[in-house]
Design goal:
Layout lengths: L1 H17 L17 H9 L1 H14 L3 H9 L6 H23 L9 H29 L8 H9 L4 H4 L1 E3 L5 E4 L11
Antiparallel strand pairs: 1-2
Length: 187
């Protein structure tokens, strides 16, 4: 739930700051050719272009961490998580760029969208795999931290035959016998 709230707050801030109308006398034409704007900016003023690139990388970068947080899964493949996050981030960047076309003083720019996606990917790679690895080390797989201890304590008083695997007619083990939990009835 915290991931959803943080993602909504982040996207609200992004849309508030990037989709406000600009009072400018004219705007450049929309750029639909990749890397055209970036090359032109670096040819004109490298320091200003570098600032613009870094700002564009950082605008949606927190989504690279917040999108996997929304899923809340700890045990997923790094490649699968990365692919889902970058795809969802690309869709967010596309929506932001498409909404810009309806706001006065803004035009769509494919270079900005590419930088947003790259920022999402870099943030995801920098934070999410390490954070998930740390969380996996903290708790045992498939159960809460205290569940393994409680299960061991509950099984300490049972006879040895109850916990053993059942044997089929051919002698192969089939796993532990199923147990039905006891449900107490209220008076």
């Amino acid at each position: 739930m915290a991931g959803v709230v943080l993602l909504v707050l982040h996207l609200t801030a992004v849309w508030w700051f990037t989709l406000r109308p600009n009072a400018v006398p004219w705007v450049d034409a929309a750029n639909l050719r990749p890397l055209t704007t970036i090359r032109a900016e670096f040819a004109d003023d490298p320091w200003s272009a570098l600032r613009h690139v870094v700002e564009s990388l950082l605008v949606l970068a927190p989504a690279g961490v917040l999108l996997p947080l929304v899923g809340g899964r700890v045990r997923v493949s790094v490649a699968g998580s990365f692919a889902r996050t970058v795809f969802a981030g690309a869709m967010l960047a596309l929506v932001v760029e498409l909404l810009k076309t309806a706001v006065p003083g803004h035009v769509a720019n494919v270079d900005t969208m590419l930088l947003h996606i790259l920022g999402i990917a870099l943030a995801h790679l920098a934070v999410v795999p390490a954070a998930r690895a740390r969380l996996r080390r903290r708790r045992p797989p498939g159960r809460a931290a205290g569940a393994a201890h409680a299960e061991q304590a509950a099984g300490a008083g049972q006879p040895a035959a109850a916990g053993e695997a059942q044997r089929a007619g051919d002698g192969a083990a089939q796993g532990p016998a199923p147990r039905i939990p006891t449900v107490e009835i209220a008076p």
